[in-house]
Amino acid sequence: MAEKIRVLLAKPGLDGHDRGVKVVAAALRDAGMEVIYTGLRQTPEQIVTAAIQEDVDVVGVSILSGAHMTLFPAIVDLLRQRGGGDKLIFGGGIIPDDDIAALEKAGVSKLFTPGASTVEIIDWVTRAVAAKKNDEKLL
Amino acid sequence: MSLYTEFQGGSEVALSKIISHIENRREGYQEVLSRLYRTGGRMYRIGITGPPGAGKSSLVNRLAGLAAEAGHRVAVICVDPSSPFTGGALLGDRLRMQDIPLDKGVFIRSMGSRGSTGGLAAATSNVTVALDAFGFDTLFIETVGVGQMELDIIDACDTVVVALVPESGDAIQALKAGLMEIADIFAVNKADRAGSDQMVYDLQSAMEMKAVHSEWIVPIVATQATANVNLDELYRHLTAHKAYLEKTGLLAQKRAEQLKKKVERVLVKSIQRDIDRTLLNGAVLDDIVGRIMRGEDDPYSAGQALFRQYKFGS
Ligand SMILES: Nc1nc2c(ncn2[C@@H]2O[C@H](COP(=O)(O)OP(=O)(O)O)[C@@H](O)[C@H]2O)c(=O)[nH]1
Ligand SMILES: [Mg+2]
Questions:
Q1: Does residue B48 sit at the A interface (CB-CB below 8 Å)?
Q2: Given an 8 Å threshold on Cβ–Cβ distance, is B17 in contact with A136?
Q3: What is the rounded average pLDDT for all residues in chain B?
Q4: Looking at residues B256-280, what average pLDDT do you find?
Q5: Which chain A residues contact residue B112 at CB under 8 A?
């Protein structure tokens, strides 16, 4: 039995609906992944705690509120501080190209803009997780 | 440093990764489990089961908070169904547990059922061993809540709470599903809805007809998980049931029974694996089936002959 890819989907900030996240959640599930959705208005603290406790491979963050330049770095930094630096972070939202470059430099692995299809997202997650090397020792 | 060493130093990251090793049966997981088993045994395990939408997650949301406030080190495992077709799962219980004070160190882990049908995942009870060894003293386990007979919980818990809702016919449903037998406490949740009193009454009469095997009278508590009504009452019954099991020696007895079953399962699985590897490899079964279909052999004689061959080598 192949291992399941585990993904946390989170939606920080105060902007309204989570339709987009739910579509992505369903698509990743149908692609055979285990998807943990933590709901709206999550703080970076809550997102990072969930990512660590659930030992996910990937954290997907949706930000529509325009606060991406503060929220993404906050999540990346906190995750690293708390020992979860090996987890990949991807994001989605309306994000200008310059910001995308800056965020990818800051440690966000991949950003999807609103046109992205779920197939692209599934594909990226699958490949990125497969490429991750795992050198931790159990005993 | 190894994960196990970091685990012993109290790293939550290491705990979480060790759980993944156990869940995926990665190389070395049994050795780790062997060590973890020897350092645990103090954690009290509470199971919550019941039909989908009864409010199991919402109840745990409140109960875990009450336990943490009372000074306990609390962990939660919630199991959701995996798709039998894709193996994927949407693990949504955590979404209903937003009031749990994570800053008090409560640890929540979601698991997909991954093909198990007894209400828990195959690895759930092993995961509890890791939580126990890590130092949590109180665990809540939420079952999948879709099956009729989610009985795994009996072997993994000390106290079982059955959550029901005041929908008509639910008491009868509970009777049929064997929930009467496994409940130590009933929570009739969504007491804000019509029919709650009736439901409590129906359960009471059903319980009165049940043969009484113990001094424990199964409490039936009407709760409203979302509005946080009567949850302290439910929590008091949990504490009382724990005290009852401890006082009567039933807790030790129950755990001894569970361990017996566990050892038995390990033994049977080892034998099964050995049989698959030695006796049944290749086309042995195909040959036998051919003979049976030609009327030259039958399943009973063939099975017995295989057993003799396995045990005595002839
Ligand atoms: N009206 C009402 N709704 C509730 C109550 N408790 C939970 N719910 C709601 O019932 C739904 C299912 O709850 P959940 O805890 O996810 O149930 P589970 O499937 O058994 O884990 C959610 O929408 C909850 O908000 C309650 O006491 N009253
Ligand atoms: Mg639930």
A1: no
A2: yes
A3: 93
A4: 94
A5: 4, 34
> Does B255 fall in a domain?
no
Within a domain: residue B153? Answer: yes
CATH of domain A6-133: 3.40.50.280
Judge: A39–B98 Cβ closer than 8 Å, yes or no.
Answer: yes
Measured in degrees and rounded to the nearest 5, phi and psi for residue B9 equal: -80, 0
Give residue ranges with CB within 6 A of ligand 1.
Answer: B 52-58, 96, 145, 189-190, 192-193, 224-226
**Do A18 and A51 contact (CB within 8 A), yes or no?**
no
Each residue's pLDDT tens digit, B284-306: 899 999 999 999 999 999 999 99
Q: How far is B140 from chain A (nearest CA, A)?
A: 15
The answer, for B56 touching chain A at a CB cutoff of 8 Å, is no
Please list every residue in chain B whose beta carbon sits closer than 8 Å to the beta carbon of residue A52.
12-13, 16
The string of pLDDT tens digits covering residues B169-220 is: 667 776 766 778 899 999 999 999 999 999 999 888 888 877 777 889 999 9
Pick from B58, B97, B113, B228 the residue to mutate for probing ligand 1's pocket: most ligand atoms within 8 Å of its CB.
B58
Are residues B238 and B271 both part of a single domain? no
- Domain containing B244 equals 3-248
Q: Cα dihedral angle (B55, A52, A54, A132), rounded to 10 degrees?
A: 150
Render pLDDT for A70-117 as a digit per residue (tens, 0 to 9). 999 999 999 999 999 999 999 998 899 999 999 999 999 999 998 899
CATH code of the domain containing B241:
3.40.50.300
By residue count, chain A amounts to 139
Beta strands in chain B (DSSP E): 44-49, 74-80, 89-91, 107-112, 138-142, 159-164, 185-188, 220-222
Q: Is the separation of the CB atoms in B70 and A15 below 8 Å?
A: no
**Spatial CB neighbours of B84, under 8 Å, sequence gap ≥ 6:** B115
Q: By mean pLDDT, which of B76-90, B164-178, B242-256 is the weakest? A: B164-178
Nearest to B150 by CA among B124, B188, B130: B124
Nearest-by-Cβ selection for B92 from A3, A4, A37: A37
Is residue B271 one of the residues assigned to a domain? yes
Backbone angles phi, psi at B96, to 5 degrees: -90, 5
| B50 and B167 both lie in a single domain | yes
- In the listed set B220, B248, B276, which residue is the last one of a domain according to the structure? B248
User: What total number of domains does chain B contain?
Assistant: 2
Domain boundary among the residues B248, B272, B289 is at B248
Question: Does the beta carbon of B99 lie under 8 angstroms from any beta carbon of chain A?
Answer: no
Taking an 8 Å cut-off on Cβ atoms, the answer to whether B89 and A53 are in contact is: no
Q: Which residues of B touch A49 (CB under 8 A)?
A: 102
**Rounded (5°) CA angle B20-B22-B24:** 65
CA B150 to ligand 2 centroid distance, Å: 14
